[in-house]
Amino acid sequence: MDRRSPSDRVPSAGRRSTLRQTTRRAALDVDTSGMPERRTPLWDEMDARLRRRLDTLRRRDVPTTPGVYALYRNGDAQYVGKASSLRTRFWGKHMGRGASMTGSALRRNVTDLLGIASAADIKARRYLPTADDAARVVAWIRACEVAWIETPTPADALDLEDAMKAEKLPPLTKR
Fold first, then answer.
1. Dihedral through CA 105, CA 45, CA 167, CA 111, nearest 10?
2. What is the mean pLDDT of residues 102-127?
3. Mean pLDDT over each residue of the chain, to the nearest integer
4. Which residue of 65, 125, 144, 146 has the fewest C-beta atoms within 10 A of its own C-beta?
5. How far apart, in whole angstroms, are the C-alpha atoms of residue 163 and residue 4?
6. What's the whole-model pTM score?
7. 56 assigned to some structural domain
């Protein structure tokens, strides 16, 4: 039995077509003050998804399908990423408690945000995070929420992530 809500399931063929069409064109509206307001239809869709608190999220709650996920803190998107398996990527790489952070850009970028070390130094192994560093990063991440959009293929996840980054780049996401 599929326990996910209908909005979490893979989009229908018609919905995938609409997502592709939306990603291929910029949306620009004018607000009542006459100033351009950039619309972000893909982020609007992600923002409307069910958000799960990471401090209570269980491994089995995360689907094994490809998709794009967004991390939120205090209601604001902080990071967007893609995965060929949401469970493996998110749970296996980002929710880890170990000091190794070379496999997770999110964890490296949080380390940078917290002033522990630069993401580049960690990736290049010029700085090796300690257990205390890892605990601080895990605590920061576990205070967030996650939402995701499942996609039919990893290639669709890559396309969707690229389009979302083009619409809006969250502070912990690098190009």
1. -20
2. 92
3. 81
4. 125
5. 25
6. 0.76
7. yes
Tens digit of pLDDT for each residue in 11-49? 444 444 444 444 333 333 333 344 444 568 999 999 999
SS3 48: helix
Q: Give residue 86's identity as a one-letter amino acid code.
A: L
5 lies in a domain? no
Structural domain contains residue 174:
no
Residue 150's identity, in one-letter code, is: E
Decide: 81 and 68 in contact? Cβ < 8 Å: yes
Q: Which residue is listed with tokens 């509206």? A: 29
- pLDDT of the residue at 154: 97
Separation between Cα atoms, residue 39 and residue 107, nearest integer Å: 29
Burial (CB count within 10 angstroms: exposed 0-12, middle 13-18, buried 19+), residue 28: exposed
Segment holding 146, helix H or strand E: strand 145-150
| 104 within domain boundaries | yes
Query: Which CATH number does the domain housing residue 49 bear?
Result: 3.40.1440.10
Q: Report in angstroms the alpha-carbon separations of 26 from 32, 49, 57.
A: 20, 22, 34
What per-residue confidence (pLDDT) applies to 40?
82
State which residues form the domain around 106.
12-167
Q: How many independent structural domains does the chain possess?
A: 1
The single-letter DSSP state of residue 42 is H
What 3-state DSSP class applies to 105? helix
